[in-house]
Amino acid sequence: MRLKDVFTEKLRENGISKIGTRMKWILSSADPIRAMAVAVANGDAKVLKGDGGIGFSFTFDGKYLQESPEAYVGNRGEPIFGKEELIQGLDLPFIAIDCRFYELHSEKEKKKLRLQITKTLGTIREFMWDEKLIVAGKDFGVGFYCDKLEDFLLSNGIEEVILLDPKGDKLFDRKKAKCYVIGGIVDKAEEKDLTSLIGDELEKAGIRCDRRRIELRGSIIGVPDRINHIAEIVLRFLLDCEDLEKAIRSVQPITVAKWRLRKELPKKSLRVRIGNKTIRVVSKETFKEFDWLNLRLLDLYDVCREQKLYVVSEEVMKKLIELEWDEKRRSYFLR
Question: Which of 19, 150, 228, 279 is within CB 3.0–4.6 Å of 119 for a Cys-Cys bond?
């Protein structure tokens, strides 16, 4: 369950079905109800009694109404509930980004890291609120900053975390944890196995690290590696109870999907020898077999062009399969 769902439930409990605000940043949001929930959870506003003199409101599905609200979100007025009442009893995890190896990055990588962490805050706000994002080792001005992640964990009584590590010895599953740790590592720095070193450092401080890798049909190829994407996959899987494969596809950039297609497509191809020339062909219908990747038909053609695969119709493919098999050359023979 997301924070927005908890927020609307709390409003219903208080007999409220439409709500308003004058806060400009909320009104400019694509989802004003979610933005109201975040504002209250962050302690920046409260849900207040009355209409506050506001002549418009929103339903819980974000529909704009030219009607006065039954309550409003702001800072001046008689409160119905605020931060403490909203988040009381919520068992939502922390997402921690450990940037202790920040200085090992190039200047270009540092810019990418900053961008990904900033985007991660936007992801966190889709599901929870700002304090649930922990950034350790480098302050980017988002979430809750701490110098050392182990100090934050121990001070909050967290003795075990799940570390999202592409080289983890276990698969990521629905095992719950109070904190999920993502390495603040991008590009070439990833090749140095720094995520594993983060786990080693946490364990030296007495934090148990359950190292888990996210796989897509038996491989990490095709799993997005940007920090904000990893965070969203985790939260979709845990809070929305989405199937992991669906969660991955939901956030998978086309470029990443094509990485996996490059690996899988040759397995679907057929070798055909025409005289002294051998070509590889693949059926256009094969595209339907990759509905678990975020792809367009155009992307199939692009990868086929790269790999020098000829795309043929299903009818042609069936006829090719009926041709004579040449065991020596491991290909079908067209006389």
Answer: 228
